[in-house]
Design brief:
Elements: H1 6-18, E1 21-27, E2 33-39, E3 41-43, E4 46-52, H2 56-63, E5 66-70, E6 77-86, H3 89-103, E7 115-128, H4 133-136
Antiparallel strand pairs: 1-2, 1-5, 3-4, 4-7, 5-6, 6-7
Length: 141
């Protein structure tokens, strides 16, 4: 585990808690990329988003769990690389409350799609443009 600057890490987590949309990149069966914006929750160093089980991103993640995510600001960058899995039932109930407080939306009761909560465990986080990158570098995890 790499050493983390606690002030920088607090700023990163604060930003991930406030931002409303993150871009998700998955890979199609034939190797072509698929990029979409999603609502998300950052909780206990994991990222969560809900998606319909009939979407392209869900189909892609079923075959290849490797994902990349990025906040939309090109001047203050956070890129997360990780592995995505469907969250367990206990996690769904906990994270659904966070989604409701952030977006006033409870995917568990939204009948427009069969929603699945996806849990992303980061294995690499890159950050630059935050004022710490010149001293601490861009890799924070």
């Amino acid at each position: 585990m790499r050493r983390q600057n606690p002030d920088r890490w607090r700023a990163i987590e604060g930003r991930l808690g406030r931002e409303m949309t993150i871009w998700l990149a998955t890979v199609r069966f034939d190797g072509r990329p698929h990029l979409v914006p999603v609502w998300f929750v950052w909780l206990e160093r994991k990222l969560y988003f809900a998606t319909g089980s009939d979407t392209q991103k869900f189909t892609n993640m079923y075959r290849n769990q490797s994902v990349s995510l990025s906040l939309p600001d090109p001047q203050n960058v956070i890129i997360i690389e990780g592995e995505a899995h469907v969250a367990d039932h206990n996690t769904v109930d906990v994270v659904a409350d966070y989604f409701y407080h952030k977006y006033e939306w409870d995917f568990r009761y939204d009948d427009t799609a069969k929603w699945r909560l996806i849990e992303v465990t980061p294995f690499k986080i890159l950050v630059w443009g935050d004022g710490y990158d010149e001293i601490d570098g861009i890799r924070v995890l």
